[in-house]
Write a structure and sequence with these properties.
Structural class: alpha+beta
Largest sheet: 6 strands, mixed
Number of domains: 1
Radius of gyration: 15 Å
Strand content: 35-45%
Number of strands: 6
Distance between the termini: 17 Å
């Protein structure tokens, strides 16, 4: 039932660069402060969470700032990465994320800029029957 996704060979280096950055905002090597997250995000960033709620850039920055005030212990497995170039320097990265009992499909729209990678959009969708 699920499609077989493949990444074009010419995009494999980009796939690897972006794979190392996912899940977004959960990779301390790319930063843990509001200023770090601000630099990662495009000015028009928005997110649709696994709940279906829409989140603004400012709201996400507020949540991240609060989250990183305490100790972070996370257990996740990200796999099945796929990269698609949708326009020059714009890439859609999709993958599956297992976090304890919750399985989600993730999609992040990335733009490569002179300042590095910028996140334009992110969405998570819960896989309803994944563990039944």
């Amino acid at each position: 039932m699920e499609p077989t996704l493949t990444t074009e060979p010419r995009l494999l280096d980009i796939l690897e660069e972006l794979r190392r950055r996912e899940p977004i905002f959960h990779r301390p090597e790319f930063g843990t402060t509001r200023a770090d997250f601000d630099r990662m995000m495009d000015a028009n960033f928005r997110e649709i969470g696994a709940s279906g709620r829409c989140y603004s850039r400012d709201y996400v920055l507020d949540v991240l700032e609060e989250r990183y005030r305490g100790e972070i212990v996370e257990h996740f497995d990200a796999h099945d990465f796929h990269c698609l170039e949708i326009a020059p320097d714009h890439y859609l990265l999709t993958y599956t994320l297992q976090q304890e009992a919750r399985l989600t499909r993730r999609a992040t729209l990335w733009r490569r800029s002179a300042d590095g990678w910028k996140i334009l959009y992110h969405q998570g969708t819960v896989v309803a029957d994944a563990l039944t």
